[in-house]
Amino acid sequence: MIVxxxxxxxxxxxxxxxxxAAGRLLAETTETIGKGHAERLMAVIDETLEKAxxxxxxxxxxxxxxxxxSFTGIRVGVAAARGLALALGVEAVxxxxxxxxxxxxxxxxxxxxxxxxxDAKRNEIYAxxxxxxxxxxxxxxxxxxxxxxxLAKSHGAEMTGSWAVGNAxxxxxxxxxxxxxxxxxxxxGVERPKPLYLRGPDAKPQSGxxxxxx
Length: 214
Hints:
Radius of gyration: 18 Å
Number of helices: 6
Number of domains: 2
Structural class: alpha/beta
């Protein structure tokens, strides 16, 4: 099965093609653009298909990053993935940014549970605990720094590696090859991808200027 993975959850606009049967990355394209994912995503997908020498109708599954991450970017990616899956008659699956960080950390430091963390701004951290097998031990949540420390202690997870990954500069960039591999390994028949928002958007309507309804 050929998996098309797409990521618009951070500063990158990325796509990758992965052969699930062979366990092999076929091609990838990443543009670090910050904003404007909606305008560039289809061109990035086309470039990746061209690199791999494949047509879009050869794709058997779509994998998309669902967050947490950029509020607008996540919506762009999820909408594109669901639209492509519908047009192709294939399955779409979601991959969270915390899953990607966890799998990367477990690959570098196997055999122990990890707590992955991302800077959520406003003195909060997106965090989640994963077992040594890569399966989630807790639900993703927006926590304080002290709560993340307690989360790591309660699961016997060291705060090296995963903690550093989640809080390092550039932590809003995610390995598109890893996203593709995780997407290929998802069981069939999972729920359609939807944005993972752990809190509301930073921008809110100014209620003082709202017009009264008749």
